[in-house]
Inverse folding.
């Protein structure tokens, strides 16, 4: 299927992109970054923009910056750049692990972090990882810069806290402590590679027991969600497999069948079961890293 006709504009800076967005206020505008999420919706007719603004050439929105406290990741940074960063693997392991599990090499070389998160597809691998990592979304608009906590960013299926005149420019991730570990696990669709269920986990530890945990899940509701019963159960528990398994069993205790996603790939009941299984796998994957050397960037 061919996309409908639209006007094409190319932005060469963040300021230029905001000017173009303001110029076309009241029209249906779509932003093109890597195109991994947008192009399929254009071809299927789900997106019918009047104007397409290409932001994919804004150098200021690319790259990974690291300091002692965390990472600033430009919205146009490719999944492959995250996967290939030893610093991100060591300091934000669950997020790097999620990027590593996206699609195939071609997809990871093309798709962008900001496009993935702003698109807010429930089946995004990075949504739950952003939540588990305690990430923050940085948006630029006419009134300047705004910080949006990841916990407040996802509002529903393809819906976010971004205002129509705002542009997601980067995300910020805190750096894990020396005793902290993280991991991502998913049940992938055999046809698309998208997660039927995906779970990211970050454990803050003192080396002997869990001080706190953040666990984020993809594609179990219409947006990324934290599994707070599991988080609460883990606090104060020893770093043992039995504790991980018990915490995984309560992962969906606050989610009923009405809230759970249901589609051709999984009923609500089966998806709840998968959530518990892959929560356990993510937690055990994080536990496995306690005794191992810091994870290395993927080849």
């Amino acid at each position: 299927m061919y996309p409908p006709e639209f006007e094409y504009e190319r932005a060469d800076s963040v300021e230029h992109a905001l000017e173009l967005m303001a110029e076309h206020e009241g029209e249906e505008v779509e932003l093109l970054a890597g195109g991994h999420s947008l192009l399929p919706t254009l071809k299927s007719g789900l997106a019918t923009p009047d104007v397409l603004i290409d932001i994919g050439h804004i150098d200021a929105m690319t790259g990974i910056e690291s300091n002692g406290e965390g990472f600033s990741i430009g919205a146009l940074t490719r999944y492959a750049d995250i996967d290939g960063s030893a610093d991100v693997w060591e300091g934000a392991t669950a997020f790097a692990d999620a990027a590593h599990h996206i699609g195939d090499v071609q997809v990871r070389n093309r798709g962008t972090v900001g496009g993935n998160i702003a698109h807010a597809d429930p089946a995004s691998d990075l949504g739950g990882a952003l939540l588990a990592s305690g990430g923050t979304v940085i948006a630029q608009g006419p009134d300047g810069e705004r910080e949006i906590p990841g916990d407040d960013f996802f509002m529903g299926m393809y819906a976010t806290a971004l205002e129509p005149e705002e542009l997601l420019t980067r995300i910020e991730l805190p750096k894990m402590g020396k005793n902290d570990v993280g991991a991502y696990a998913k049940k992938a669709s055999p046809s698309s590679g998208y997660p039927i269920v995906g779970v990211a986990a970050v454990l803050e530890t003192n080396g002997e027991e869990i001080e706190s945990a953040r666990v984020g899940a993809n594609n179990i509701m219409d947006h990324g969600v934290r599994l707070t019963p599991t988080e609460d159960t883990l606090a104060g528990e020893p770093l043992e497999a039995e504790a991980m398994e018990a915490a995984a069993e309560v992962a969906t205790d606050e989610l009923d069948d009405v809230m759970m996603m249901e589609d051709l790939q999984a009923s609500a009941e089966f998806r709840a079961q998968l959530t518990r299984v892959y929560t356990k796998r993510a937690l055990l994957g994080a536990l496995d890293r306690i005794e191992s050397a810091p994870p290395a960037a993927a080849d």
